[in-house]
Design goal:
By secondary structure, the chain is α+β, with helices and mostly antiparallel strands. Helix content is 33%, strand content 26%. A hairpin with a 4-residue loop joins strand 5 and strand 6.
């Protein structure tokens, strides 16, 4: 479960409230000395949550229709598959590094001011419209 501080950040980025929601799947790489690593969460949301998200967020929070931009996809995929611990956790589950969602939206949040540094400190949110799932993939370097 995300702590209060992380939930506030997610809410500011997406207007999605995950406080007191537990992920149905979680994989985390072991943090380094500075706490760097990859977090991968999947949340099952209710239809009402999704209706609100879709009506409020798609236009106001820079969500994009899937599929993910190829350049962003390739960089994210490289970072996620490079982490052996995370790759093994995902291999032992039904989830893939970047979910193969056909009907949905994504939001890529780059914490760096330099747009070309996609691979440093990013979050990728994916909304699966058909299954009411929210994927949150966070890479902190």
């Amino acid at each position: 479960m995300l702590n209060y501080f992380n939930n506030i950040i997610i809410y500011k980025e997406t207007h999605i409230n995950l406080y007191n929601k537990k992920p149905i799947f979680k994989a985390e790489s072991s943090p380094s000395f500075h706490g760097d690593g990859i977090d991968y969460y999947v949340y099952q949301l209710k239809k009402e949550d999704f209706d609100f998200i879709l009506s409020d967020n798609i236009n106001n929070y820079k969500w994009n229709r899937l599929p993910i931009n190829k350049e962003i996809y390739s960089i994210i995929d490289k970072q996620l598959t490079h982490d052996i611990e995370l790759a093994n956790s995902l291999k032992n589950s039904s989830y893939s590094p970047i979910p193969n969602v056909k009907n949905g939206y994504y939001l890529f949040v780059n914490k760096n001011s330099n747009e070309k540094d996609y691979y440093f400190n990013f979050k990728l949110y994916i909304l699966d419209v058909e299954n009411f799932l929210l994927y949150l993939i966070k890479y902190d370097s």
